[in-house]
Amino acid sequence: MASDIKAQVSRAKREDKIATGILMAIVAFIFILLAALIVYIIASGAQKAFDPSFLTGKPEQFKEGGGIGPELFNSFYLLVLTMIISVPLSLGAAIYLVEYAPGNRVTHIIKTVIEVLSSLPSIVVGLFGFLLFVIYFGWGFSIISGAFALTIFNIPLLVRVIQQALESVPTTQRDAGLALGLTRWETTIHILLPTAMPAIITGIILSAGRVFGEAAALIYTAGQSAPMLDFTCLDFSSPTCPWNIFRPAETLAVHIWKINSEGVVPDLAAISNGTAAVLMICVLLFNLIARFVGKRVGKKLVAE
Amino acid sequence: MPRIEYERQLADLDAKVQAMGAHVKELYEKAYEATGTGRLEEGWSVDAAQSDNAAAERAIESLCLRILLRQQPVAGDLREVSGALKMVTDLKRVSDLSADVCRIVSELEGHVCDIQRSDLLDMGALVAEMLDCAVRSYLAGDLKLAHRTIAMDDEADVYYEKIRERIIQGMLDSQTEAQDAVNLLMIAKYYERIGDHAENVARWAEYTVNGTREDEPPTGVGL
Amino acid sequence: MMQITERDTRGAAVEAEMREPVLATHDVGVRYDETKVALSGVNLEFAAGEVTSLIGPSGCGKSTFLRCLNLMNREIPHCHIDGEIVYDGHNINTPDENLYELRQSIGMVFQIPNPFRKSIRDNITFAPRCHGIKDKKRLDEIVETSLVKAALWDEVKDKLDKSAYALSGGQRQRLCIARTLAMNPKVVLMDEPCSALDPIATFSIEDTIGQIAGEGISVIIVTHNIEQAARISDKTAYFLLGEVVEWGDTDAVFSDPKDKRTQDYLTGRFG
């Protein structure tokens, strides 16, 4: 009897060890894979990525030494525009769904649709944007078409993130506001949103990373050409004006795709690597900023 | 400090017990004086004093019950409240016995012969001291005073025996009339019983302080 | 039989106006989804300066009833409140009652201390500012008087701009009480305000309750702690299966309950 138990215990211990070992091996494999990828991308692109002339220079069509200045600017400009459009929309939708929507079928269907949308392949979003914005609205390959396509791509994710952030605010906070004679709106704006803000900001910045690296949705909407930008130009209808939202704008991710698929420049590999490294560093920075800002905002809001 | 209401009630209880102790002592002193002078002070009512003390007892009782019901006292507080609840009964008995002494004295109309008067006064003085010590020991939680009170009770019993023998002797010698003799004996007996109640109060003081009563089941109390 | 006659010794002024109820319910009931009856036929009165305990087993409608009194149940879908709730001389259980005004004069404190994630000062000034008080001096006054009334001022006066979450559980709960007092309520509803607190913090909340009742506020408290009901309340109502079985002076209910079921519950011989 006693030896039975002993045997059982030692078997359980052995199984536990084996399971732990397997899990650790899996994690190590994933970690090494990702770390190797990051190190490889940054290492092979480092020379270019930290070269100011590469970062600000204009791309070349046929000879070597081209830069990614316009692409870098386009990526950020597009990102900002996308965020300006998608954050308020997502915020509104999420607040409605969490705080106001009656718990009925329609609400349930809306929530399901948003979930489905968030797993839509981005090339499908891009082709939809092409049909709607580029062709139907006649905006052509332009920043604004790209921004709207990215908005469609981004909204489901953002709504989910904000929804979760709002839902994680304890009901007691909501009750406290209402019991003090505040309206639902005042409670949401002044109590729930500030409390959920750290999570919301983190979510926004993380989604920014995703948007920043998106290529497929932009190929047929923002276009694949990067006209040289003239930062002194204030004519908003000129194609060289950087702020013109109706000009085509190739981003970093699209640039990588393009030079790899149809590029003819001799230093193709170096430029592609450098661009990838810049992209990677930006996304990494977004993540770090997201954590930092999230923590800071959290601390500030609870007045610690 | 937490439990403001509770603390206030306990303080209130303390004040009430103190006031009742003072009033009972006052009534006893009147009885003692009357034993000496043979009559009651003009314009002073035994009944009023006695019923005041009875009212005070009821007030303390209801306060104790209220504290027990509302505040669920434990430990020292529980002993204080339950001790007070018990000791006021003794104080009330002291009040009643003193009032009875007053009534008998006024009935005697000065028929207390000198020998017995001085004996009674000696005994009364001793009991007065016991009462004082007992009440003070209770209020201050003073064990020394309480022990002194308890020790004095034996002396009081000796006094009582002595007075009883003298009265019997007086009756045998036909110096004392039977009715007076009975009344005198009752006064002595009442003093003795007041002493017993004083001892009881001292025992409750002891209980309140250390949670035990250092006596066997109290014999002779309220005999 | 000895009688417990003495009343709580609070201010004489409060004593005088005690009998007039500020809040009363006539035949109040609550239904969910039209059919599920959670509460029925509750007739209670609450006077100024009085503390009323609502006791009873879990799920017997105490909290549901409490949430009727400031119409918090209106926030729950499919919840219907029947009957009349008379506050300040008129029935508030009507569709056109101004909830926001009502909830300022009938405050509520919850089971889990739920201060806002703001500074101590902002926790108190937040609602008054939303209701239109902007003057800085006036707001500072409100902060001080509310904290004093909630017996928290001395503990926090030097750290008003610290986070409310830097406070202990009991202090947080008193902050929540202060936040409610900032609206100058006539009635404060408390839903098991001490059940998440340790005994010392519980006693401090009980003192605060006594103090605000002394200010003439009618306090209605749901509690699972029978001893607590005995300690703090003037009146006690016993709820069982969605009905009030017994209601009366706490002394009477606890020393001589009229209903056998109350007796069983109080003595722990329930069920």
Task: Considering the chains and any ligands shown, give keywords for the structure.
heterotrimer; A: 304 residues; mainly alpha; MetI-like fold; 11 helices; globular; C: 271 residues; alpha/beta; six-stranded mixed β-sheet; five-stranded antiparallel β-sheet
Report on this model:
In chain A, 74% of the residues lie in helices and 0% in strands. By secondary structure, chain A is mainly alpha-helical. Chain A has a single domain, classed as MetI-like (MetI-like fold, Orthogonal Bundle). The longest helix of chain A has 48 residues. Chain B has 223 residues and is mainly alpha-helical. In chain B, helix 1 runs parallel beside helix 3, helix 3 runs antiparallel to helix 6 and helix 4 packs parallel to helix 6. Helices cover 36% and strands 24% of the residues of chain C. In chain C, strand 5 and strand 6 form a beta hairpin. In chain C, helix 4 packs parallel to helix 7 and helix 7 packs parallel to helix 8. Classes of the chains: A mainly alpha (304), B mainly alpha (223), C alpha/beta (271). Chains in contact: A-C, B-C.
Q: CATH homologous superfamily of chain A - what is it?
A: MetI-like
Quaternary assembly: heterotrimer
Q: What's the rounded overall pLDDT mean of chain B?
A: 86
What's the alpha carbon Rg of chain B, rounded to whole Å?
19 Å
Low-confidence stretches of chain A: none
Could you tell me the strand content of chain A as a percent range?
under 5%
CATH topology of chain A: MetI-like fold
Rg of chain A from C-alpha positions? 24 Å
Question: Mind sketching the topology for me?
Answer:
The complex is a heterotrimer of chains A (304), B (223) and C (271).
Chain A lengths: L1 H48 L2 H5 L12 H32 L4 H14 L3 H15 L6 H25 L3 H9 L4 H29 L3 H4 L32 H11 L5 H34 L3
Helix pairs in contact in A: 1-11, 3-6, 3-8, 4-6, 5-6, 6-8, 7-8, 8-11, 10-11
Chain B lengths: L3 H34 L8 H26 L3 H34 L5 H27 L2 H30 L5 H33 L13
Helix pairs in contact in B: 1-2, 1-3, 1-4, 2-3, 3-6, 4-5, 4-6, 5-6
Chain C lengths: L11 H5 L4 E12 L3 E7 L2 E3 L3 E5 L6 H8 L9 E9 L2 E2 L7 H7 E4 L10 H11 L5 H14 L3 H4 L12 H13 L5 E5 L7 H16 L3 E5 L3 H7 L2 E6 L2 E7 H6 L4 H7 L5
Helix pairs in contact in C: 4-5, 4-7, 5-7, 7-8
